[in-house]
Specification:
four-stranded antiparallel sheet; mainly beta
Amino acid sequence: MAACEPTNSDGHRLHSSGSWNSATSLSVQGGQAMHFRVSNANALGTTITIRGRGQTQQATILPFGHADLRFSIFGSEPIGWDFDVSTNSDAFIVTWCLYSAWLPGDPPNG
């Protein structure tokens, strides 16, 4: 898995990371802004769809390429995020880094 940077281009900090090889879900406490950087670990292109809090982001990722999927909502932090991840591809192996405006351990705000 490619290493995740400690912060993204917006200054949000690394919340968590991992890999997916099938449809799944992810529940986290995070900030108003959440940013997935998803990298395709396969020699074949793949698709990904992530749904969270009424928003849907999707991408086609070229072999060994990446996509940035961003979610945002207004509210007091921490915010409970439930993400549903799916694909239409037969070959789905991706790694991901999730960046957030709020991290567990930060004081609540709002």
